[in-house]
Amino acid sequence: MKLFSILKRGLTKLRDQIQSRKAKLIAELKAGQPISEVDEVWLDDDGNLVDEEQVVETLDNASDYDWGVERLNSQDKGIVQKLQRLGGGDAPSRKHKHKDLEIFVVRNVSVLSLFQNTGPNTAESTNDMAPSCKPSAKFHKKENATLAQQIEILDWYHANGKNQKQMAAHFNKIYPSLYLKQLRISVWLQDEAKWRAEYEGNANLSRSAKKVCKTQHPEVMEMLDLWVSKAMADNILLTGKVLCQKWKTFADLIGVPDDEHLNLSEGWLSWFKAASAASEIVEEEWLHIQELIKKHGYQPRDIFNADESSLFYV
């Protein structure tokens, strides 16, 4: 069986594996029912086959399968290996067996080098073949969408069956630097009325400008606030390190570019703690503790700890 046929069979098996769970979650979302954070992450990652479909399409359009695989980045090569395992194949590509031909990849540029003892004709043969080599796949730095792009994408979504997966696949070809995923699109849909109002109220120049994210990234902060509330209700110990790590996790989930991640310093942490606490409750509890100290005669030196060192002296 040809390698590309194995690849397509692997993609079909992968679709079948995720179909039931994905259909169930999508039905819940359409019915307005909430789904868990784990299910949201699954829908955006394992349940989203946009990357797999793009790799298969790229190799289908390649003039040569082996050269097509050679040009893929490491992540896409991993996808090829996964699909071939599912489809019953082994290695991601066949190695060239011709004893007079070796393939080198130097700084992402494929170079054919002939090791045949033909004298001066060797260099000439190499030069003749070099123009046919295809460059490596282009890397795109992740960018924010402009307001005009957001409205264009949302309009397409409503006009083409409201399928977030198809929309991501469609616009990742047109705007590859946006790296659209389903969860990011879901966030846009929640704020669609706000984006459209802003679009109607702005001139063409503002519509084409990159969206400027607020310093605190309100979508991330909202997710973090909800998570903190649940964690406190479950009596989970929250530390500054845990809060910073969760912020980064939620930022990645909604597609905040790496270069726009906040510098989560002590200042930010203090601000978040202050913003998350009800000042009236804190003040009331502080006064209550002061009363307990006076009532029971606690001394400043009586500072207890639960580990090996149980008593500190001040």
Automatic annotation (TrEMBL):
Protein's name according to its UniProt entry: Unplaced genomic scaffold scaffold_190, whole genome shotgun sequence
SUPFAM superfamilies linked to this entry: Homeodomain-like (SSF46689)
Keywords assigned: DNA-binding
One of the record's GO molecular function terms: DNA binding
Pfam family, one: HTH_Tnp_Tc5
InterPro entries linked to this entry: CenT-Element_Derived, Homeodomain-like_sf, HTH_CenpB_DNA-bd_dom
Domain HTH CENPB-type: 208-282
PROSITE patterns given in the database record: HTH_CENPB
Domain of life of the organism encoding this protein: Eukaryota
GO cellular component entries: nucleus
